Amino acid sequence: MKTIKYLFNQAWLQLKQQPLLTVVSVFGTALTICLIMVMVMQHQIKVIPFAPESNRARLLHVKWVSLERKVGEEYKVWSNGPLGYKAATACFKELKSAEDVSIHSIIYRPMQIKRPLGAGKSVDVKQTDASFFKIFDFAFIDGKPFMNADSDAGLPVAVVSESVARSLFDTAAASGKEVLINDAPYRIVGVVKDVSSLASTAYAQVWIPYLSTDITTSDQFSWVDGNLGMFSVVILAKDKKDFDAIREESSRKLATHNASMGAYRIFFRGEPDDQLTMTQHKWSYEAPDMQGYFRNLFIFALILLLVPAINLSSMTQSRLRQRVAEIGVRRSFGATRGAIIGQIIAENLVLTLVAGFVGLLLCFTFASIWGSSLFAKAQLVTLNIAPAVEWQMLFNLSTFIYALLFSLLLNILSSGIPAWKASKISIVQALTGKTH
Fold first, then answer.
1. What is the model's pTM?
2. Do 167 and 228 fall within a single domain?
């Protein structure tokens, strides 16, 4: 411990002796760490748990289906699109291997909500069932979610976000009040804290039972006998280890459903998807290339690390040229090459850790101020609100671990070769101030 403390004290003194070079190195490294952490956060925001999607690690999703039609003796792909209500119910609703299953609509267009005789307000509406509120941990600030009996009967009840309640009634205590949604009367049963659109599955501003509308039956929203439509399925597993069992059971249900379809049959391109795969499954006609996704992440991170590592390596080499005589003296008094390498790496480690901390602060600041633009993603439709970024989404233990790992890796890349070269200089050359 004393040796490590001595190394770091010496490193800090050496860095203070060259303040300009140190400042340039720190801010250059901090900017690199900031850029890398922005990339990490953009990846993490898709998978880290935060309310109301606190169970992301146990979720599976189905949002696309492909339909084949029998032509002669062969089946050929006929159509691709969002999942229909009939197919969703037949293949996923009663899964015994899952803890719970919810069928919910994709947000295809905003609806108008208003008080009777009042002015209308455009809101994003999610049509779902009571299980939705068991899978996602919404923060109710008034009232409660609608129950199974309400959703199964298609009763006109609604859960609204706090901002919607306040815009309509100037208070969050809105349960029991009547509203019109697309001119149809609904009764508010609960009010929840606003949900960020970064919670891509749970997000909405108003939640109503899908059986309270014609989304399951209308030709405008349901096609091919309900196999294509406007729905998605979210499955909550008891444990992540149950994913394979859930997929196997849903495959059996799919085979049973297809056997009843005559000239048609449906299939899923790799679904049910885990949370990350779901965020990359953007199109119904193809499965996501997850290997390509991780390969691109790796290449981008490598480029962000290598470019500053080369620059920092040059700065480290420049510092070492001014200290060749010092290295010679240390070698002449018995310092080993390993000790020389350790000293140089320790100096650079102090610099990169300080820079890593600064870079992480820059990243959090940038994400907090410009998070709506930073984390905005392409949507099939335009939502009513921009993505809201809360501190719980940013301050995650894994974020600090990644920042530390990137700092250490950058330290090794930028100081390893210069340190090794410095240790190879002979004592005579070093004492005369020569590097070669």
1. 0.81
2. yes
